[in-house]
Design brief:
Helix content is 34%, strand content 21%. The chain is an alpha/beta fold.
């Protein structure tokens, strides 16, 4: 095969992954990329930024843009998350809509359909793929009615039933996506898997553990950011320091040999009650969060990590435009 034939057979492109919260968007991206680049939980608003997940193979490269789930905003942060998703629909090669096929479409699905249709214009937009996820939870008697309902909302000939958690039809979905991508050259180096800096990925891993381990009233109001990152062998994580809210409690991580990365993070919440929940009796909850997160951060960095977490309160930070900007959450 000549070099020109090799280049022309390669397909690459940017795929916007959109849908409601908890339909499997981040799980799909992580599965295809082959490692965690976006945190996963069953809580709404888990994804707060557009995160690129880069999956590369010898003859294709899919650059997934994992977006916040569409939801009814209750504060300025929520409105910004919806706007982030809306903006992700422009300047892409393909739009992948993911829905929970085990449920009939609801109001949010109809809102999403209107948003997608608006971005498509008069049929001049990028190809649309509809992924009916969670097929393992779909009752046989409901298959046709649910399929028809979503197909009517998102008109496209490209529809795939999947179960990402059970790895059913994921390969077939990827084949479909690749077939619709333009021919060209890779958009990113094949060794890259995400556009997120290591310090942001590490902070998100801590937030993931908080989402999983704490009660329902905490997750939406929590944010985690790196305050200090001491790695004498790799100065790249340096970045402008985020705001430092007053007050807080800390918990130390485990030490390590020479070459250990020392990381200090702030867990930001909105009330003293939320702070007490995150810390737990005698600091046990915070210790558990830190231990579980540290293990994954060490695996990601391939280094020993000393992790410190400090819980601090900033009332109504999700409605504070200045702070949202300083935290990098403002669109």
């Amino acid at each position: 095969m000549s070099s020109s034939e090799s280049v022309s057979s390669f397909r690459a492109g940017l795929v916007a992954v959109v849908g409601k919260p908890n339909v499997g968007k981040s799980s799909l991206v992580n599965a295809v990329v082959g490692q965690k680049v976006s945190i996963v939980s069953d809580k709404a608003q888990t994804t707060r930024r557009r995160i690129l997940g880069i999956a590369s193979r010898p003859d294709w490269q899919i650059v997934f843009a994992d977006t916040p789930g569409l939801h009814k905003p209750q504060h300025r942060l929520g409105a910004m998350l919806n706007e982030t998703m809306r903006q992700s629909l422009s300047d892409v090669d393909l739009v992948l809509v993911m829905v929970d096929a085990s449920r009939m479409p609801g109001k949010d699905d109809r809102t999403l359909a209107e948003m997608v249709a608006s971005s498509q214009g008069a049929g001049a937009g990028p190809p649309l793929v509809l992924c009916l996820n969670k097929m393992d939870l779909l009752k046989a008697a409901d298959v046709q009615s649910h399929y028809d309902a979503y197909a009517a909302l998102f008109p496209t000939e490209h529809i795939m039933l999947t179960s990402v958690t059970r790895e059913q039809n994921v390969d077939r979905l990827v084949e479909l996506l690749v077939s619709l991508l333009p021919e060209g050259t890779p958009l990113y180096d094949p060794d890259e898997v995400t556009d997120q800096p290591m310090r942001e990925l590490a902070a998100e891993l801590v937030r993931e553990k908080i989402l999983r381990l704490t009660r329902q009233e905490v997750p939406h109001a929590v944010h985690v950011y790196v305050e200090e990152w001491d790695d004498s062998g790799d100065p790249s994580p340096e970045a402008p320091e985020p705001p430092r809210p007053s007050g807080g409690e800390g918990v130390g991580g485990e030490g390590g040999p020479e070459g250990t990365v020392h990381i200090s993070m702030v867990v930001l919440v909105e009330t003293e009650g939320q702070k007490a929940i995150v810390i737990g009796r005698g600091g046990q909850m915070l210790k558990k969060i830190g231990t579980e997160a540290r293990m994954e951060i060490e695996e990601m960095l391939e280094r020993h990590v000393f992790l410190q977490l400090f819980v601090k309160v900033r009332s109504q930070w999700r409605d504070n435009l200045r702070m949202l900007g300083e935290l990098g959450l403002r669109t």
